[in-house]
Amino acid sequence: MLLLISTLVLLLVTNMGNGIGSSAIAEVSMTRESQGQMLYQSRQHLPDQQGNHWLVVASKHVGFASPPSIDLMLAGCPGFVDIDHSLPLTLIMSKGKTVKVKSLPESLYTEVLPGSNVAQYNLQPIVPELDAALDLFIPTKGMKSIQVEVPTQVVQEWQTVATCADILCEPLTDPALPH
């Protein structure tokens, strides 16, 4: 877990301000973590309303003893933001529906707690409701929430990650969108 968090923060810091933005749409990646254990991820750098970039990673572990969940990890630039883990992440969907998702409890981190610029949320219960672009409102300490717009293509990648099992993923695409 420490290696994953360190790698994600390193990627975030090295890509801040180098032009990677909302136009950088990734595909779902698959990593074999060990025999019978797979990790599926969708990673993007998305700007907030101030133009600061966030690493946004939807992931699913398959093959662990517990049932798989779809987790969303958000990482802002260290020293720039303090995420308030006691408050929920707010998602406002394209049709105006608001959903609040609690941060994963600290007890789930087996090695080192993430920095104050990193938070992780379980999206499993709401992935089926996600249908198009949405806005994330990230709760912070000492200032108002930070808004990050998530394009439809990214939401579709999250839905694809949710369908992954073993080595198969079912891409969910809208025929009207360019591939």
Task: Tell me what you see in this structure.
There is one protein chain. 15% of the residues lie in helices and 32% in strands. The protein is of the alpha+beta class. A hairpin with a 5-residue loop joins strand 2 and strand 3 (53-62). Mean pLDDT is 76; it is low at 1-25 and 174-179.
- Shape annotation: globular
Q: What is the tally of beta strands?
A: 9
Helix tally? 2
Distance between the termini: 33 Å
The stretches of 5 or more residues where confidence is low (pLDDT under 50) are 1-25, 174-179
**Rg for CA atoms:** 15 Å
Give the strand content.
25-35%
Strand order of the largest sheet: 1-2-3-4-7
The description of the largest β-sheet is:
5 strands, antiparallel
- Percentage of residues assigned to helices: 10-25%
Question: Topology as H/E string?
Answer: HEEEEEEEEEH
User: Could you say which structural class the secondary elements and strand pairing correspond to?
Assistant: alpha+beta
